[in-house]
Specification:
The chain is an alpha+beta fold and 357 residues long.
Length: 357
């Protein structure tokens, strides 16, 4: 495997900083990344990606290093309470990187199916209308808390690419409503995402195949460059949370600033991102999440663009305590607890009668 592609083995995401501060962890990670990247650019070590690809990366090394240092400065400013200065510097970094932030390389013109779950609390019931599974309406923004890509008080739409992942990400509720979402990905679609969703090890193999088989090698080179160029930002957005119950979560600083930038940007509508849960169950599922930002709310408190673009299926209710498994399958379950295994709940039967609400 070419040395440039081997970089993907060492610098995966889903990063655990352990007992090291985010600043020190990322500073060390970035320094090693830049060093290894520089050492991997020998032409003789990259017979597949070739001389042109090595030259493209070489020409961007200084930018990658400058962006990495700026991200560290953002965290330092934030830790000093200089929030405005930190935000301004972060937005400048994102502006500099904008041309390298893009949608995925393969499959951009296919509809994508996503899922959203809403926990059912019998003391606070809601109707099973499609809009109840959409984003929190603006007039209920007091319900919006802080998450990795969430700012308190600003509703966004959060979806998962797999129903099982959605259940785990939503805190494994015992009773819930779930809907399928149809996200348009046609050539004339007006929804664009920053894409941090593809796991880097499988992506390395994809690049190996693309360089062997694709006709448009220039497109493949540009896509590889974008992943190499944006790794420091993706890493800064992918730290596993050390104190999930804390009132302040330092791992959220960069991703929340990136979300603010997307809200103010005219070209991007959201972010695709890999789950950064510390749970092995979540990580084994695969899939990814997306956040779609909101800007212009209608009279009911829903974002106009998202409401017009996205179609939703009829919600379906599941009660984990009432789920039963076919008796013929029980011998195969090896005493697995079906209440903790969403793969046994027939989530594939969620309605796909998509329409706008």
């Amino acid at each position: 495997m070419d040395e440039l592609l081997e970089i993907f083995k060492k610098y995966n995401c889903h990063l655990d900083r352990k007992n090291v501060s985010s600043v020190n962890f990322l500073q060390d990670n970035f320094n090693k990344y830049i060093g290894d990247l520089k050492n991997s650019l020998k032409y003789e070590g990259n017979p597949l990606v070739g001389v042109v690809m090595c030259k493209m990366v070489t020409e961007k090394i200084n930018d990658i290093e400058a962006n990495s240092k700026s991200l560290i400065e953002v965290l330092k400013l934030y830790s000093q309470g200089k929030i405005v200065a930190a935000s301004q510097k972060a937005f400048k970094v994102f502006d500099n990187m904008k041309s390298q932030l893009m949608q995925r390389y393969s499959g951009p013109y296919r509809p994508e199916i996503y899922y959203r779950i809403r926990k059912i609390d019998d003391s606070d019931p809601f109707s099973l209308k499609r809009k109840e599974l959409f984003h929190i309406p603006y007039f209920k923004n007091h319900l919006v808390g802080t998450e990795r890509y969430s700012m308190p008080g600003h509703p966004c739409l959060y979806l998962a690419s797999k129903a099982e992942l959605c259940w785990y990400e939503c805190g494994m509720p015992k009773k819930f409503a779930i809907s399928k979402f149809d996200i348009p990905q046609t050539e004339d679609s007006n929804l664009r995402f920053i894409d941090f969703s593809e796991k880097l090890m499988p992506l390395m193999k994809s690049f190996f195949n693309w360089f062997h088989n694709e006709n448009d090698i220039e497109q493949v080179r540009n896509y590889l460059l974008k992943y190499i160029y944006t790794y420091p930002l993706r890493a800064a957005c992918s730290l596993v949370v050390k104190h999930p119950d804390g009132k302040f979560i330092e791992e959220y600083i960069i991703p929340q600033l990136l979300l603010q930038w997307v809200i103010n940007d005219e070209d991007f509508d959201g972010i695709r991102y890999e789950s950064c849960s510390s749970s092995d169950k979540v990580n084994d599922i695969g899939g990814h999440n997306i956040v779609l930002v909101t800007n212009n709310f209608d009279g009911e408190g829903y974002d106009v663009k998202l409401r017009n673009s996205i179609k939703i299926g009829t919600p379906k209710v599941y009660d984990v305590n009432s789920i039963k498994i076919d008796d013929r399958l029980k011998d195969c379950l090896e005493e697995r607890n079906i209440k903790e295994d969403p793969f046994l709940w027939s989530l594939s039967s969620i309605p796909d009668d998509f329409r706008n609400f």
